[in-house]
Amino acid sequence: MLVSAVLTLQPTQPSTIPADQGRATHGLFLNWVRQADPGLAQELHDIEGVKPFTVSGLHGAGRAVKGEVSLDPQRPLWWRVTTLSPRLSQVVLEQVLPALPDQLTLADQPFQVVGATADEAEHPWAVVVTC
Fold first, then answer.
1. What pLDDT score does 55 carry?
2. Which pick of 7, 9, 74, 126 has the fewest CB atoms within 10 Å?
3. Helices 38-46 and 22-36: crossing angle, nearest 10°?
4. Where are the domains of the chain?
């Protein structure tokens, strides 16, 4: 099974953040996996080379100006996690997504977690593929 899950965030206040949040979303994802399955998180961390997952930066904030994007509480943002191993896919679907916090912080800015889905009917970049 392979999973592409999309998480939707709502900024809680107008502000700006650095445009590249890929490292921050990567860290959040690994922390959530660690909370669900510490052994799997350690295995993922220890892999040298290509990892069995991808994590995007934020989408939907508009154009970056001087390396920053503006946050608008009226404009939701999203990011995608793609898992490439059956074990990690199962942990994400059964433990990580159901246990997401109501709020999170990226670049010292608070965001409301509006939703998360792996259902392609809910977001065009979301999908679960069984092999």
1. 96
2. 74
3. 140
4. 2-129
CB 110 within 8 A of CB 131: no
For the domain made up of 2-129, the CATH class stated in words is alpha beta
- The answer to whether 17 and 9 are in contact (CB under 8 A) is no
**Which of 26-46 are b and which e, b meaning 16 or more Cβ less than 10 Å from the residue's Cβ?**
bebbbebbeebbeebbeebee
Regions of the chain with pLDDT less than 70: none
Sequence-distant (≥ 6) Cβ neighbours of residue 105 within 8 angstroms:
111
pTM over 0.90: yes
Q: Which amino acid is at 27?
A: G
pLDDT on residue 81: 97
Alpha-carbon gap, residue 50 to 108, rounded angstroms: 29
